[in-house]
Amino acid sequence: MFNKPSAMTSLLVLSLVLYAASQTIPVLSSTTAYPSVADTETTDCSVSGTDELIPVRREVYDGGRIIDITHRYSPDMPEYGSSEGIGQVVWLAQSMKNGSLANQSLMKLPSHTGTHVDAPGHFFDHYFDAGFDVDTLDLEVLNGPALLVDVPRDNNITAEVMKSLNIPKGVRRVLFRTLNTDRRLMFKKESDLSYVGFMEDGARWLVENTDIKLVGIDYLSAAAYDDLATAHFVFLESREIILVEALKLDDVPAGIYTVHCLPLRLLGAEGSPIRCILIK
Fold this sequence. Notes:
280 residues; seven-stranded mixed barrel; two-stranded antiparallel sheet; 7 helices; 11 strands; 20% helix; globular
């Protein structure tokens, strides 16, 4: 038997719908491509009439209902504070061409590159020592209804900016699209420290005045460079807020989705690559 929705639940749903309706929502074609690697073209899933093997690379699935908001790893992906990119990520350690029974690759990359998640131990050493790693993160927070919002493009995310977004109480997961997406910073090899992020007062306003527990953003750090440590302190101190960083939000309409983010179960790691999708 299903329980009758409460008045508060109904009010929250209505608030989300009204908020989404107030946003400018561009049309997303089901064939829209968001190539994350230079000279890599997204293909559709139609079957060729020839025997040529063509791998299918998609950013949208099921007629546009599922949107992949994860960046594809490549050597030219930016690494925070570096001008060289992350470099080679995958090596073919065993090759069938060299007589191996099967192909088998090795992978090496920093845990805070590409689309990734932060655990409390990232900026709190006593949490790191106590074992608050990515394996302890709450998957309920990382999966569920989410709001994608456009942040005013002229500054970092301050308390004033947070107030202006008018995010309803009860909303627990918010993805913030900023000037970083417009500037395509995640598609540039050199790390750009002029990226948009949360200032300390913006992070504190979010913590004290909203119910948000998942904070998603479109560059390698949720915290602006000038408040890199202090904004992270505010977000991570309670161990209730999870930061999902470097999301690929190009051309995705603002509005309400279901988000699914799954980090690797890396014991002892304070960060992890994460696969994130939105479902309409």
